[in-house]
Amino acid sequence: MGLISFTNKGVYCKQGDFYIDPWRPVNLAVTTHGHSDHVKWGSNAYLCHELTSPILKQRLGELNIETLPYGKEISINGVKISLFPAGHVIGSAQVRLEYKGEVCVVSGDYKVTDDGISTAFEPVKCNTFVSESTFGLPIYKWQPQQLILDQIREWISGNQDKQKTSVLVAYSLGKAQRLVAGLAGYRPVYVHNSIANLNDAFKTAGVNLPETIRVTAETSKEELQKGIVIVPPALAEGRWIKTLSNAATGVCSGWMQVRAGRRWRSADAGFALSDHADWPGLLSAIKATEAEKVFVTHGYSATFAKYLNEIGIEAEEVKTQYGNEDDDEAFH
């Protein structure tokens, strides 16, 4: 019998009697990261990385949380559990399970390129690997982060020449912090309340983030026009943005890689900045695990699993409820 099964509550380890990223309340939820599609309120206890804990508390309130640093091993009912960096967002973790010589790794969401702010992805050798496939098509291949940040700076500079306010649309957890770090010192950075709250939670946990300015009712439109405004996807077409001085919106998402994505909603620009692995990244990560069996979850799972089987890696598509992080549009 394998170490994990896929149930109507989530990924279940029978030997340890716990779930990984369950989408319904359970006794013990081992949590890979703080995006809302991977952690739900209502479980009796949670186990996560040290830097994910303040995010869970900030988003879900007081919870019964136990934390682990990367690489430290604990045992639950004889199952050894340890966490390894997933590179997805700050504190994101792959969950390594070991029982009677069998090793399974549940990766959650991940990216293999180092974004300079999340702990870089670390491949873990295993018998069984559970992989996402959000961008599991050959068309998805990311440009270097620095190149995209340069493109964003150039766009902001052009907006200021035209007296437009630059509004970047990005996830509150993950993408926003990458932008804050990558654009620090270029222009003052103004952030929506939800992003400011998460930044504060990270700083309290000891993460060194550049200073940002929280947007309030008193923040003048003239101030914002001289700086950079970062908002979550839910506000992308909100009434508030329409009140700004000639707002230009730039969407930061892997979906912007394809031309159709650039016309998403009414955005003025699209930047293919993603917190997920691209096609080459998925393949390199899976090959590095040397796994004998791969379960492919959310994204282009059927296509990606078929390709893995064609190249000699046994793979199976699994239906889950992951893939809509932050309760916003599919905006990775």
Automatic annotation (TrEMBL):
It comes from the Bacteria. Signal peptide: none annotated. GO terms for molecular function: RNA endonuclease activity. InterPro entries: MBL (IPR050698), RibonucZ/Hydroxyglut_hydro (IPR036866), Xnuc_lig_assoc (IPR026360). This is Putative mRNA 3-end processing factor.
